[in-house]
Amino acid sequence: MDNQMQPSEVFFWFPVMPSSDWIYPFPPLLSGTLIKRYKRFFADIELDTGETIVAHCPNTGPMTGVYLPGNRVMVSVSDSPTRKLPYTWELIEIEEKVWAGTNTALPNRAIESLLLAKALPELGDYHQIQKEVPYGQDKKSRIDFLLTGTDTHRPIFVEVKNTTWARGTLALFPDTVTARGQKHLQELMSLPPQARAVMLYFINRGDCTQFAPGDQADPVYRQLLRQAIDRGVEVLPCRFEITPQGVRYLGLAEFKIEAGMG
User: Fold this and answer.
1) Would you call 70 exposed, middle or buried from its count of C-beta atoms within 10 A (0-12, 13-18, 19+)?
2) CA-based diameter of the chain, in Å?
3) CA-CA 20 to 30 A from 251: which of 115, 121, 138, 193?
4) How far apart are CA 23 and CA 209, in angstroms?
């Protein structure tokens, strides 16, 4: 197999649980106020010290409901000499003491911690975790996590989607038309019957107890999601508490397939 087609990393599970209930602790973060986001990748932020910085914005989407100039934000600092921007925009306070993640790399990092701890009982037993494994009809897609060595001997393909848009306590995905997300649903539907396909929605804010597809943003995605469910794709909408200290898993949200309409 070509080297580019190899999974990037392989993990074997061992029974070591985290020392606290933070599944992903943050490094020390700096507090400030969001001034503006521009050119997709940049955000001007005034730190509490009064200094104005330019931070990297990892989320290149519309950030519906979480792009709130004037709100409090948290940034991390990197000492890497190769980085052009040492600051990364990590969190925004959407309401008092309610935080949302703005770094789209966070969901996979946190889910990896959950998988290593075997903290998602819905997935059953497994003994090996692989990341970014090529799959699909043309092998040009990569699944976020492939779990093997299961008690049923069925490999589990887990795709993770970052979810920050909400209407009240209802989390919604997507917040814009997503051709990539549509393709991922189609790839999961095309898996052979001996595999398990799981779409995991990482609700990257702590104020949501329900989840639905964002029909207003992408009605095609909802249609595909319904088809995927009919074909056996499992849906896990996972709730998380997001704080400047870290991320805590709260369990599954109630899945309401019709609630995102209108």
Assistant:
1) exposed
2) 58
3) 193
4) 19
Would you call 142 helix, strand, or coil by DSSP?
A: strand
DSSP states along 11-31: EE------SSS-SEEPPP-EE
- Cβ atoms of 238 and 255 closer than 8 Å: no
Within 10 angstroms of residue 140's Cβ, the number of other Cβ atoms is 11
User: Which two tokens mark 152?
Assistant: 């049923």
211: which 2 tokens?
């989840």
Note whether 56 and 89 are within 8 A (CB).
yes
Which residues are paired to 53 by β-bridges? 45
Answer yes or no: are the C-beta atoms of 71 and 26 closer than 8 Å. Answer: no
* Tens digits of residue pLDDT in 50-97: 999 999 999 999 999 999 999 999 999 999 999 999 999 999 999 999
Rounded-to-integer distance, Cα 29 and Cα 150, Å: 38
Q: Alpha carbon 228 to chain centroid distance?
A: 19
Nearest to 27 by CA among 205, 240, 244: 244
- Tally of CA atoms within 13 A in the half-sphere of 204 that contains its CB: 29
Half-sphere exposure for 92 (CA within 13 Å, toward CB): 25
Task: Tell me the per-residue pLDDT of 189-233, one tens digit each, with 9 for 90 and over.
Answer: 999 999 999 999 999 999 999 999 999 999 999 999 999 999 999
Q: Are 207 and 166 in contact (CB under 8 A)?
A: yes
| Residue showing tokens 């209802």 | 170
CA distance 223 to 215: 9
Phi-psi region of 200 (alpha: psi -120 to 50; beta: other; left: phi over 0): beta
